[in-house]
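Renewal narrative, Specific Aim 1. Our central claim is that a sequence can be written position by position from structural information alone. The example that follows is taken directly from our test logs and has not been curated for this report. It begins with the structure tokens describing the chain, in the order in which they were read.
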């Protein structure tokens, strides 16, 4: 029995990706150029295609960035005694 190999990557048109991410098609192509999405020009004539798996990776990276920014804002708003645990010491 032959071994099952990884399935071939699935590619989506930039319009499909734009609809999934609620952004413009030009923004999808820009994300590919920036390396935030994996894509290539395929076919003849060449048309942009985006690897489907890279969309999940992009969303995970965006979620992590949002989480870190929220923690940063939360820490920035906290007072130093709260952060460092240096509340005034009282003797009875």
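The sequence written for that structure reads:
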């Amino acid at each position: 029995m032959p071994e099952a190999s990884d399935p071939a990557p699935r590619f989506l048109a930039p319009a499909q990706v734009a609809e999934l991410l609620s952004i413009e098609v030009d923004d999808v192509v820009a994300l590919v150029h920036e390396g935030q999405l994996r894509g290539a020009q395929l076919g003849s004539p060449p048309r942009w295609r985006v690897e489907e798996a890279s969309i999940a990776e992009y969303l995970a990276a965006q979620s992590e960035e949002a989480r870190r920014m929220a923690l940063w804002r939360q820490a920035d708003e906290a007072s130093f005694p709260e952060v460092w645990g240096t509340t005034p010491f009282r003797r009875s």
